[in-house]
Amino acid sequence: MAKECRQTFDSSGFTKMPLQKSAAVLLDELKRQIGVLEQLNAAIAVYERVEHLKKLEVTLTAAQQAREAQVDALQLVRALRDEECLIDENEAMRRLKVSESTIKRMRADGRLPFVRVGTGEKLVRYRPSDVAAIICRSTPRGVMDKTD
């Protein structure tokens, strides 16, 4: 014989389920809610990771900007140091062991880079590294032996 299952209604009009069936439905709903919570927890973990990475990006950007500022400051210090260390024509002639006319000729044909300084830019100065480069490039019979 088949069991009869009568639907009964409570005072609000909802169907009353048998206890066994309502427990199974509740268990399914609980499992579904647990799945939703697990997805939410995973989403929260991803969100927290993204927020952490955003903060890290800000920190690294600030560090990079600070590093660039340090490099700029270092370049400025080096430029100022080089400017202070410029040598005059007499010192360049002494280091190269050449005459004034040879220095002027080297300057005119571009072999010896120079910097004009002063108000009218009549003063000429040389970077020690440029003078040293000429010395390194010179041969035994090169610039060093000339004494115009």
Can you walk through the features of this model?
- By secondary structure, this protein is mainly alpha-helical.
- It has two domains: 22-84; 86-145.
- Helices cover 63% and strands 7% of the residues.
- The strands form two sheets. A two-stranded antiparallel ribbon has the order 1-2. Strands 3-4 form a two-stranded antiparallel sheet.
- Strand 1 and strand 2 (15-16) form a beta hairpin.
- The longest helix is centred in the middle third of the chain and has 66 residues, at 19-84.
- The radius of gyration is 43 Å and the shape is rod-shaped.
- The relative contact order is 0.07.
Q: Any key phrases for this structure?
A:
two-stranded antiparallel sheet; 2 domains; mainly alpha; 148 residues
Number of strands: 4
- Round the Cα radius of gyration to an integer and report it: 43 Å
What value does the average pLDDT take?
79
Strands across the major sheet, in which order? 1-2
Kindly summarize this structure in a few lines.
The protein is mostly helical and 148 residues long.
